[in-house]
Design brief:
By secondary structure, the protein is of the alpha/beta class. The protein contains 12 helices and 12 strands. The structure holds pyridoxal-5'-phosphate (PLP).
Length: 355
């Protein structure tokens, strides 16, 4: 606490991101980045945008990028909002759409940024426990069981479990809460779940958020987007224009457009990750690990007899970093990002020693 801080600052519990080590030669499987670099066309587009026009502000409404998103996901540009990483899009959604008299509802085990935004914006929330096998119970999000929610948010696939709901299950939640905003954070959807973007045409209460950080290999560029009814998008725009008029810079916009347009590279690299996830899962199971079924670019695993913290430490001694959350219910799990096949082999070899 400092006497110079606004009072709210002392009450915050900021999000702690996964480590970005300065050391070289680490096998970095801790923050769900894509193991393959972005499309060469992305690098070319960014280089081409590196010119004298950097003296000018970017387009405040990011029309070119919103059009590229709209084309990539098959909706009208008026239904698209873009921001500086999906974390920023999420932050605006929390303030614009998720702060109501009744509490916001989300799972007990989920993206740990959600409670942080609630703290920042003074949003009342309640968490609902995942089932024993770490699934979201759809009934928990229908008004019948716990009454009406102020709003609802969850990732699909969920993080850090990797487990996904079907489109039909999500539509039950969205249709069962027609006067309540439902945000589905699809950060990992391209690795094996089905997107509910198409449902936004039928349900004006549904907002779907995507990032280019994971499946498009652009965590360093900071671009994310949301798709929903013009009414929801307008709410986001009002908050964005009260915060930062130019969240997506010229280079980021150029790179993001190129990434969205290079469908072939996207397909090829996401399929490679899906394939390695299969190998990794089989290898981990052979070492005795329980592996939750993953639709994401990471697996969430526990060993029946070895402590997760000790396993993480053993891996680190072998220059491999994974994510271990010291949180209730999941402190015996490790979240391991799916890397290249070579990284997967190094991981399995190291774990065979440590276990
Ligand atoms: C990685 C992640 C994000 C944030 O992505 P950025 O676009 O890099 O800010 C959002 N939600 C979930 C569930 C994530 O795992």
């Amino acid at each position: 606490m400092s006497r110079f801080w606004s009072p709210v600052v002392g009450t915050l519990s900021p999000y702690v991101p996964g480590e970005q080590p300065k050391l070289q030669n680490l096998v970095k499987l801790n923050t769900n980045e894509h193991p393959y670099g972005p499309s060469p066309k992305v690098l070319e587009a960014i280089r081409a945008a590196c010119d004298d026009t950097l003296k000018l502000y970017p387009d405040p409404s990011s029309d070119r990028l919103r059009q590229a998103v709209a084309t990539a996901v098959g909706v009208a540009p008026a239904r698209v909002f873009v921001g500086n990483g999906s974390d920023e899009v999420l932050a605006h959604a929390f303030l614009a759409l998720l702060k109501h008299e009744r509490p916001l509802r989300f799972p007990d085990i989920t993206y740990s940024f959600y409670p942080v935004y609630c703290g920042l914006y003074g949003i009342d929330y309640e968490t609902l426990p995942l089932t024993e096998d770490f699934r979201i119970d759809v009934e928990d999000y229908l008004p019948g069981r716990h009454g009406q929610a102020g709003a609802i948010i969850f990732p699909n696939p969920n993080a850090p479990t990797g487990r996904a709901l079907s489109v039909a299950e999500i539509e039950r939640i969205v249709a069962g809460n027609p006067d309540t905003v439902v945000v589905v954070d699809e950060a990992y959807v391209d690795f094996g779940a089905e997107s509910v973007i198409a449902l936004t045409e039928r349900h004006d209460n549904l907002l779907v958020i995507h990032t280019l950080s994971k499946s498009r290999s652009l965590a360093g560029l900071r671009v994310g987007f949301a798709v929903g009814s013009p009414e929801l998008i307008d709410g986001l725009e009002r908050v964005k224009n009260s915060f930062n008029s130019y969240p997506v810079d010229r280079l980021a916009s150029a790179g993001a457009v190129a990434a969205l347009e290079d469908v072939e590279y996207f397909e090829q690299t996401r399929q490679a990750v899906i394939q390695t996830r299969g190998r990794m899962t089989a290898g981990l199971q052979a070492l005795g690990f329980e592996v939750l079924p993953s639709s994401a670019n990471f697996v969430f695993v526990r060993h029946p007899s070895r402590d997760a913290g000790e396993l993480a430490a053993g891996l680190r001694e072998r220059s491999i970093i994974v994510r271990h959350f010291r949180l209730p219910r999941i402190d015996q799990f490790l979240r391991i990002t799916v890397g290249t096949d070579a990284q997967c082999d190094l991981l399995l070899k190291a774990l065979a020693e440590v276990v």
